[in-house]
Design goal:
The chain is an alpha+beta fold. Helices cover about 45% and strands about 20% of the residues.
Length: about 500
């Protein structure tokens, strides 16, 4: 079977009694996940007390030699086997749990739950201070099987799972689904999504091979043309993206209508908060903070529960909107070229708060009747967490890379530290540091938007991906300036205003 996989999601048509069964099974899976995680954490606590494990862990963390690191890693895995903290051991423990709930959860689904628990534990094995979280009530979003032969199965457009048979719904003009179902299904995943009325269930089929071409309704013609073998440079920020190719320039916000969803989310959150405060006055202190000493149960109104489902539904719509816009943009970029160049960006680091408290270079003044008081302000510790959470820039890169993998290609990631695209000028062949608010470059009298120029330099990267190819830049610069100026005129004509663009 092919190593390439893609998913096809189909809605399940369910009656009320079937919904009740699915809700119960997801609740059982949630309980099993938490019990498996609790057992794994207990074993991890015992493991961390072991002196031999502590010794090799310190050697592994502090060692810089790759060969020695491999040897220490082998020793650590051997110790873990003694304490039964492996994927196989967790699956063996899960067999005991599964016997209690065998009418609801099959053995394959249990093994997959144990595997996800082990992955969570594995992520914190060598990292002190990191935590894994238990599943709260109604937060488990999916369960999956290991193959399409037993457990959760898909046959003849129907889902089979422990005596439960559910029909799937496929539209008549859904060419993608019809072509996809001609290929073998590797395994199935049941996904639930929150709506205003409650959960709705879907089946995700993991299919081996390359996904079929998406087609236009009614005509059946392909939506997008094949990617030409041309260079494309992408300069991606926390909320914006600049794309430069031989034919086209793109400068736009990521998920431009995200604020519409955020406003509605904020409104519902305020309504929920006021409802909760009215019904639970004893749970709050005089200053408005929650009284942690009060152990009474929280009381929620019917309206509060309705608002909670509406909020969950809005979060689902927001994430679907971001993914949909990223997919459209990725397809647009791939029609420009298949040789994609982009900077390596650590978005996780950018989303975290700064640890150091720095003084701001700006000095604010307060005028009183007697004197003028000068205040030294401090820089905010907050960085780009909110915009990264809203716009999901890393997701765009993942989608582009995934689409390229279907044609046996991948993104060319340039070395950000060596390349310094935002500081370099190919005309003077020098590097100049710039502030974040400096959005324009003056290049021999040409005012060039900073992000677009960075994308232009990235596009013309050398083979080692650590410097720009200056000769290539000189050849293409005049044509780039023409396209740049026409794009700026177009943005001004459309009355586009954005501080991140410098417009």
């Amino acid at each position: 079977m092919s190593k390439q996989n893609y998913t096809l999601e189909l809605p399940l048509s369910t009656e009320n009694y079937q919904l009740d069964i699915l809700n119960k099974r997801f609740r059982v899976a949630e309980i099993m996940y938490n019990k498996l995680l609790s057992e794994a954490l207990n074993r991890l606590i015992q493991l961390r007390k072991n002196t031999k494990y502590k010794k090799y862990l310190n050697l592994y963390i502090n060692s810089k030699d790759k060969i020695l690191k491999k040897e220490y890693s082998k020793e650590l895995t051997n110790i873990r086997k003694v304490f039964k903290l492996t994927e196989y051991d967790l699956q063996a423990y899960g067999v005991k749990l599964q016997h209690k709930y065998k009418t609801h959860i099959d053995s394959n689904t249990m093994q997959k739950l144990a595997s996800t628990v082990f992955k969570a534990i594995e992520s914190i094995l060598y990292k002190s201070g990191k935590k894994v979280h238990f599943k709260k009530y109604n937060t488990l979003s999916s369960v999956e099987g290991k193959s399409n032969k037993s457990g959760i199965r898909f046959k003849e457009n129907k889902l089979y799972w422990n005596g439960l048979v559910l029909d799937t719904y496929i539209k008549k003009d859904d060419y993608f689904a019809k072509e996809a179902l001609e290929n073998p299904v590797k395994y199935c995943r049941i996904v639930r999504k929150p709506f205003n009325s409650g959960f709705k269930y879907y089946i995700q089929l993991v299919i081996g091979g390359i996904p079929p071409i998406k087609r236009v309704k009614y005509t059946g013609m392909p939506r997008y043309i094949d990617s030409p073998d041309k260079r494309v440079g992408i300069d991606i920020g926390t909320s914006t993206v600049a794309v430069v190719s031989d034919d086209t320039l793109i400068l736009q916000e990521l998920a431009p209508k995200i604020d519409m969803y955020n406003k509605r989310i904020k409104q519902i959150q305020l309504k929920m908060d006021s409802s909760k405060r009215k019904l639970n006055p004893n749970k709050y202190n005089e200053n408005g903070t929650i009284n942690t000493k009060n152990k009474e149960k929280w009381v929620y109104s019917k309206n509060y529960n309705k608002l909670r489902w509406r909020l969950k539904s809005l979060y689902r719509k927001r994430s679907a909107y971001v993914k949909n816009t990223h997919n459209k943009l990725a397809n647009e970029i791939l029609t420009l070229g298949s040789e994609i160049y982009v900077e390596t960006m650590n978005f996780n680091a950018l989303s975290k708060r700064s640890k150091t408290l720095e003084k701001s270079p700006k000095i604010s003044t307060i005028k009183t009747k007697r004197k003028v008081i000068k205040l030294n302000k401090y820089k905010r510790k907050k960085r780009f967490g909110k915009s990264i959470n809203n716009r999901a820039p890393a997701l765009l890169i993942i989608i582009i890379n995934q689409k390229l993998s279907y044609i046996d290609k991948h993104i060319n990631k340039i070395n950000t530290k060596k390349f310094k695209a935002s500081q370099y000028s190919h005309i003077t062949n020098t590097y100049t540091k710039k502030e974040l608010n400096e959005r324009w470059n003056n290049l021999d009298g040409d005012l060039i938007q900073r992000d677009l120029y960075s994308a232009f330099l990235i596009k013309n990267s050398n083979k080692s991906l650590d410097k720009t190819d200056r000769d290539l830049c000189k050849k293409e610069y005049k044509d780039f300036v023409k396209k740049h100026n026409s794009l700026m005129k177009e943005l001004k004509a459309n009355k586009v205003k954005n501080k991140n663009f410098g417009i």
